[in-house]
Amino acid sequence: MIASGAGVKIVQQQLGHRSAKLTLDRYSHLFPDELDALSSALDGLKARTAADSSRTIAGSSAVADIST
Fold first, then answer.
1. pLDDT tops 70 at residue 53
2. What is the spatial distance between Cα 59 and Cα 52, in angstroms, rounded to a whole number?
3. In angstroms, rounded to a whole number, what is the distance separating the alpha carbons of residues 11 and 4?
């Protein structure tokens, strides 16, 4: 299930674990790429935020429309 992309709560429910903590305690080693994926996503968000702020009109909180 984990290799197929199932989240912790789904694995918990399918295996009948009382809590997600129990599931993570037993199977956290099977989620090794989660931190890498999160890091990549945050890096992308940071880059988009920086790009968005460079399009902000000086002295204004408005964002310039560059679609035209």
1. no
2. 15
3. 11
Dig out the tokens for 19 from the structure.
Answer: 């809590």
**47 in Cβ contact with 54 (< 8 Å):** no
Q: Which uninterrupted H or E stretch holds 49? A: helix 34-54
Q: pLDDT by residue (tens digit) across 15-52?
A: 999 999 999 999 988 876 667 778 888 888 888 777 66
What the block records as the tokens of 66 is: 């560059």
On whether the CB atoms of residues 63 and 52 are closer than 8 A, the answer is yes
DSSP 52-63: HHHTBPTT-S-B
CA–CA distance, 14 with 4 (Å, rounded to integer): 14
* Residue 57, pLDDT score: 57
DSSP state of 6: -
